[in-house]
From TrEMBL:
InterPro entries: bHLH_dom, HLH_DNA-bd_sf, Max-like/E-box_TFs. Transcription regulator. Forms a sequence-specific DNA-binding protein complex with MAD1, MAD4, MNT, WBSCR14 and MLXIP which recognizes the core sequence 5'-CACGTG-3'. The TCFL4-MAD1, TCFL4-MAD4, TCFL4-WBSCR14 complexes are transcriptional repressors. Plays a role in transcriptional activation of glycolytic target genes. Involved in glucose-responsive gene regulation. This is Max-like protein X. Residues 105-132 form a coiled coil. It comes from Oceanites oceanicus.
Amino acid sequence: PALFMENARKGSIVSRANSIGSTSASSVPNTDDEDSDYHQEPYKESYKDRRRRAHTQAEQKRRDAIKKGYDDLQAIIPTCEQQDFSIGSQKLSKAIVLQKTIDYIQFLHKEKKKQEEEVSTLRKDVMALKIMKVNYEQIVKAHQDNPNEGKDQVSDEVKFNVFQGIMDSLFQSFNASISVTSFQELSACVFSWIEEHCKPQTLRDIVIGVLHQLKSQLY
C-alpha cells in the first residue's frame, strides 16, 4: 500500500505538471505569429511613407524646374528687365514673363527676316561688282594688248557738241509746234510734235546734218 500510494502521488504530480504545462502553453501567446504581424504592419506604413516622400520630392523637383525656367527667361529677355513703374521692384508674374518672351521672339523673327533681306541685297551688289570687275579687267587687258587703240577717239567735248546740236535742232521744232495755253492743249501738241518730228527718218536726218556740220568745223 505504501508503494501504491507513492506511485499514485507521483502520477498525480506528473498529471498536474502536464496539465499546468498544457495550460501554460495555451496561455502563452504565439510569438512567431505576433512577430510576423508586428513586422508586417510597420513595413506597410514605411512603404506608404516612402511613396509619399518620393511623390513629394518629385513634385518639388518639378516646381523647382519650372521656377528656374521662368527665372532664366526673365534673365534672358531684355524687356523683362525693363519693368514698368507701376510694378516697381515687384517680381514679374509668370503671365507677364511669357507674354514678354513671346513679344521678344516675334521681334527676333522680324529682325532675322530684315537681316536676310539685307544679306540678299548685299549678295546682289557683290555679284554686280564682280561683273563690273571682270568687264574692267577685260577693258584694261584689251588696252594693254593694243596700246595705240583709242588715240583717234573723239573727246568728250565733241560728243557733247553732237548732243547739243541734235537737241538744239529738236528744240527749235518743239518750240515752234508747242502751245502752252492750257495743259490739255500742251499735251495734244507734245504728242503731235513727237509723231511729226521724232520719226526715225527725221532723227536720222538731224543727226547726219549735225555730224556733217561738226566735221567741217573740225577738219
